[in-house]
Amino acid sequence: MTDFTLNSIIVHELLKEAKKPMNPVKKIKFRDSTLDKKNDIVLRLVNEINNLYGKKGNSAYYGVFKEELTERGPVPDAIEGYVSLRSPSIQQFIDLTVEIMKKLAVEAEKQLWASGGVIVFADYVRDGVRFLLVSMIKQKDGIRLSSSLEPEILEQLDLTKINQAARINFDKFIMYQNSPDLDKNDLSYLSFISTTTQQTASGYFIMALGCDKGITSNKATKNLPSLVKSFFDNNPSLQEHSRHFKSEVITYLANQCNSNQPAKLSDIAVMAYRHMTYLHDEKREELSAQLISHLNSEEVRIPVEFNVNRTGLNQILNVKFKGDGFSFNFEKALLGTNGDADICYNADSETLTFTKLPKEAIQQIERVLKEKESED
Q: How is the chain split into domains, by residue range?
């Protein structure tokens, strides 16, 4: 069971209708005080957002704040200042949310297609890790919110999907700050979701917060094949396809890299689905969704989309050779120079030995040898 503690939560409303300019004197509806963190409706709101985060239709990018001052804006510094506080006061939390709302209004005003909504701010601890969540939730059709933004209005929000959101992991943020510059290329501390199809319309939220995606592509490239194999290995109905699927994912990453196209978890879901044709439709949907949710989770952190890293790819590409009458194709991780390796290379004799052949391969080889003996 998830251990969850809500430190502070507040909601404000960004007043913007799509295809209409903002009212210059009525851009934001502020709530003056935080919500009751023990209120059942309030707790359910944060838990439902967390449950949606990273699931199908709400997959996340992982990254860091922009470093370029002209693109960064004031929000990253405000958040960094808040994270550095050992025990922030309620007023410091409210001040941070006001700062973010002002920047959201500035960026939304620049995009005619942009629309507003209720912005939920939450500072909480989940399983020992502290997070700051900023999430936009749309109200249900035909619902108008009261001026006081009381907890009851949360029941009038559409919690079937996250419209836009960002979440900062305090532990990973501190780790990033204390790491050498070289190591920072493989680290991330924030994740963000944007589901609107018009990129200019949805982009204002991420721009306002100063988020930068695609930082961890090297780690994502190296880890993805082994992660999908592990998922298949841990599901009895998928085990026999795990190695083939891993090889297929490596080939996919190579193709995306060679064509300068990003790797997408949606593509991985389609590929996984093809290995489940013998299962009922409902089970296929369930396992496919579980795979993507696992890969995109806060713990695993494979972005919904990332550029394939050439260096990382070269480390996982298979060893391939086709000679006169024979060929081999195996994972680099299986190769070694001692008897413990699955595939052992002896430099002195220039030979390659397969030390851990599966039973099926042994049976096939022995059958062929017997056939040859009978022919002689």
A: 4-213, 217-313, 321-375
